[in-house]
Amino acid sequence: MNLLGPNLRGMGRRALILAVLLLALTGLFAGPALAAPAQQGGNQVKVFVVPGLNQTGGQPVGLRQVAAATLGDQNRAEEIFKLNQGLRQPDGSALQNPNAGLRPGWILRLPDDASGQLVQIARLTGDDAVQMDNGQTQGGSDASGLPTAAVLAAIGSVLLALITAAIVARRRVAGWFAGLRRALDRFGEAGRRRRRLRLRQWLSEHFASDTETVRRAYATVGALAPAPTSPQVHALRVDNAGVTVWVSADNVEARLPNGWQHVEGTRWRSSGPPSTSAGQDDLACLVRVGGAVDENAARDAVFVDLSRLDGVLSVTGDPEVARDVVRILLNEVASVRPGTPVLVIGNPGPLRIPAGLNQVTSIPAVPTDGPMEDATVRATAIRRPIRGLVVVTGDPDRQTRIDLLRICGSAGAGWTGLVAGEMGAGAHWRWAAEADGEVSIPVLGLEVTVPA
């Protein structure tokens, strides 16, 4: 007499097959890893720690420079690459391209004959990880800090237990699997956000030390200013290979100087360094919003010209990232237009006004008659110098929106509004922030990563 129904008999056969495969895979991966401690022990290894941009004069470091400094021969860069390819670095990333720039803080293993002042000694741990005296590690453990073999063994044990239980109670096990899947999804999302945060922090450090992209952006706008049909540039993207500009919609057909190519829509592209023309645009207030976090685009930055806003910018979506956007814009204005007045409406919360700006409690008198609500939307945007900034964090109520429209734009005092929240129909620019630090700028058709 067979005590198993047809469904359970089929499930039992599938479970046994899957169990055998899981045991084989667990043994395949765990065996060599568990044997590593006996082989490696507490051996020492020579390493090179990639310095920060402030230590290299803003110049990224590559494998050829490391080989020249530690081995006396830049042609031995391939040896260093093979020793470090795919190994997890302290920031969670890994070296995959021998021609890519190296990120500050990375730990690179070196051949035994490496020497010089830049060579350091680290300990090779049991799980084949390199550990520095300050506790930072390269390779070996995964992001949870557990050896790979232990992780595989734990996952295999859990799955085998669940499969065994499935033979007896299929519905209950289905619920367990669903719960385990949700837990793994949450763990993976948390790890992804931690990695994104580290990359955003790296981007913030890079922006703090990088002046080259700012110089190139202003040089580009200055070179285009005296053109016969001067294009109204309201945004730029500066990268290693050239500059992309976005021009106002009524200038799509404008002829840019030689060397510029029309990409599509309102975008134009120029390769190589900007012109050294003496022209300049005194109204421009170029501020970096974000850029790439890829080491292959270390000089990538997206700029917008706040002098062309003439109203209110509303950053919706994740509240924390929206505040980061406003904070970044304030820091940029403090750098290029120090002393600019700033009025904060309501409670700014954790947002701090940079010391380089002049925080005020009132603004010049503005008109009190006429249809002020939605005035900045009805009117055509007028380009003007940045007279002052009005900052609001959180969704403004109706009265605050009316106050913003009365203060900002050409119909009021002509100040510029920065709202980390939902402004409604009164916003001239609307951006959307995601929890991972990505911000969508619809008018540019871009998603940029903002510094943390």
In short:
With 452 residues, this protein is an alpha+beta fold. Helix content is 35%, strand content 19%.
**Ends apart, CA distance between termini:** 67 Å
Percent range for helical residues?
25-40%
Question: What series of H and E elements makes up the topology?
Answer: HEHHEEEEHHHEEEEEEEHEEHEHEEEE
Number of DSSP helical runs: 9
**Largest sheet, order of strands side by side?**
14-13-15-16-12-17-18-19
Q: How many strands appear in the DSSP assignment? A: 19
Mean pLDDT: 78
Structural class: alpha+beta
**Largest pleated sheet:** 8 strands, mixed
Uncertain segments: 1-9, 26-41, 142-149, 369-379
Estimated radius of gyration = 28 Å
Q: Indicate the proportion of strand residues.
A: 15-25%
Shape: globular
Features:
452 residues, 19% strand, 19 strands, alpha+beta
Can you walk me through this structure?
The protein has helices at 6-40, 63-71, 77-84, 148-168, 170-209, 212-224, 319-336, 375-378, 398-407; strands at 44-49, 107-109, 120-124, 130-131, 137-138, 233-238, 242-247, 260-264, 267-271, 286-290, 301-305, 312-317, 341-344, 358-360, 389-393, 416-420, 429-433, 438-441, 446-449. 35% of the residues lie in helices and 19% in strands. With 452 residues, the protein is of the alpha+beta class. α9 links the parallel β15 and β16 (416-420). The protein is globular and about 70 Å long. The longest helix has 40 residues, at 170-209. It starts with 5 loop residues before the first helix and ends with a strand. The strands form 3 sheets. It has an 8-stranded mixed beta sheet. A 6-stranded antiparallel beta sheet has the order 8-9-7-6-11-10. Strands 2-1-3-4-5 form a 5-stranded antiparallel beta sheet.
